Structures are given as structure tokens and as C-alpha cells.
Amino acid sequence: MERFKEYSAQIASLIIILLGWEISALIMDTRALPPASESFADLVQLIRTGDAFGPLGSTLFRTTCGFALGFVMGCSYGIAAVLSRTFDDLSKWLLQIAMFTPTLILIFLFLVIFGRTSFTVILLIGLVVLPVVGTYIRDSLRDFDEELDGMAASYKAPLRQRVFEMYLPFLIPSMLAAGRIGFTLSWKVGFLAEIFGFSNGLGWQIRTTYQIYDVAKLLAWLSLFILTLLVIEQMMRFAERRVVKW
Fold this sequence. Notes:
Number of strands: 0
Keywords: Cell membrane, Membrane, Transmembrane, Transmembrane helix, Transport
Structural class: mainly alpha
Membrane topology: Multi-pass membrane protein
Low-confidence stretches: none
Pfam families: BPD_transp_1
CATH topology: MetI-like fold
Distance between the termini: 20 Å
Number of domains: 1
Helix content: over 70%
Oligomer: single chain
Protein name: Putative aliphatic sulfonates transport permease protein SsuC
CATH architecture: Orthogonal Bundle
């Protein structure tokens, strides 16, 4: 019942946004803000003809690969930072620099240095996701109960058993939460990189429609971008609830 109320509230908020968009467009009566119904018709047309799936697939591929790279590196960093105080001290400033450097600056630097390739975007996304996931995992591991670890040592529990029955169950909620945040960030970074330096993907479609001032289709592509992210996030939330049900 609670889940039904949650989904009902989310759908209601979406309907309110669309109604507000439609009413605002009718009141303003300008090409700069076409009605929601017009953009929705363009979105349906893109999906029906299959024109949406090529750019969407390109963006999903780069985003997923970059996120996977950043997630693995972030988890590795978090574990290494807890195991070695020296490593944590040496890498702390580097992590902060990567985290606080504006994303647009990183995009321009990577495109200039490494060229406009999918590998560049994957590497860029990995670098942006790494500090977010790494910080999350590091701070979570520091909250691990040391008495539990000592008890496992006193009973001479093997390392494999400790990893799969102690550390991993403890980290799974944090890993899933960091994964949701990291993927959302990956999706946005990949999208921006495509706007500034690619000839395919959702970002490129947004740039093209902006250049020809086709605002209705621009909003249709943007809606596809947002809806895809919402669907993926809901899938990740569902998986998170199933995994941490215990």
C-alpha cells in the first residue's frame, strides 16, 4: 500500500509538471516554449520510427562503460584507503581535486588531450565517478564494527568467509546507494560530453535541434533523456530494495 502511494504521488507530480508546461506554453504563445503535447508528439514519432534508439544506444553504451570503470576504481580506492593510512593520506588531495574540478573543464581538457572518441568519454566518466563512489565506500568501511572483526579473528574465520559473510553484506547497501548516485552523474557527464564533442548520441541531437531552433524536438530529445534516467533509477531502486530486503 505504501509503495502504491509512493508511485501515485510520483505520477501525480509528473502530471502537474506537464499541465503546468502546457498552460504556460498557451499563455506565453511563443516559439521558445512549445506546448507539451507538441513535444510529446515528436517524442512518440521518434520512438515509433526508431530514430530514438540509435542515439540512445550510443549514450547508454558510453555511460554504462564509464560508470562501470568508475565504480570499480571507486570501490578499490575506498577499500585501499581503509587498509592503508599512508595511501589515504597520499591520495586525499588528488581525490579532492578530481571531485571539485568543474565538470565542464574536465570535458574540454579530455576532448582536447585525448580526442573525440568513445574511449575519452568512458575515461572521463570513470574519473568523475571514482571520487564519489570512493568516498562513499571509504566512509562506510570506517563505520564497520571492529569488535565483529576481532571476534572473527578469535574464531579464526578464513578470509573468504569474512569477505562474503561480513564485509560484503555490510557494504552492499552503501555500494547500491553509491551506484545510483554514480550512474546519475555518469548519465549527465556523458550527455554534456556529447553536446560539446560528438556527432552521435542524445547530446548531439540536442545540439543539432538547438542550432536549427527546433525547440519542440529539442524538448522531445530532452524528455527521452530524462525518462530513460528515471526508468533506470527506478530499476536500480527496485533492485536495491530486493537485495537489502533482509
